[in-house]
Amino acid sequence: MAMSRHSKSDISRAMAQMPGGLFVMTSAWEGHAGAVLAKWVQPCSDNPAMVMVAINRGQHIEPMLRNSRSFVLCQIAESDRFLLRKFNGTNGTNGTNGNGHHDDDPLASMMTTVAPSGAPIVGRAMTYLDCEIIRHIELESDYRIYVGQVHAGAVLNQGTPAVQFGGNGSSPAAHTPAP
Q: Across the strands, what pairs with 131?
């Protein structure tokens, strides 16, 4: 089958129509905690329950993910402007020291609890999923994919999930489709 060539702008416009939920991805290792905005999260298995998460390369959380082999996904509510502002537009590479640890704890100003894996759970999140990393996929792109098996999770707070259309924008804008 012959495929016609489409411009990058055509592809970008088409991909911008794909919705994605906004999550804070956390991890911890040796007393250090990390958190980044994850815009691309997708369930990928029911039995066992698994999710896949794509995050930009070079995030300060990556050494914690590799060492702990775990992460927590905390779902952001559409109305939670604090979390949206706190993690908006940050790529996670600023403020790291030579060991790959973030100098300032990104969760210091928030109420958190600890998941069974040891990663922080953001108390103001709608839901959380505690995951063990079972695959790490290196892509020839600006993102890496982490596949996690879900071992624990719960609904923490009611609300409407924050949604972003397209994933290549640097500043996520929460949007909920009209009923």
A: 71, 150
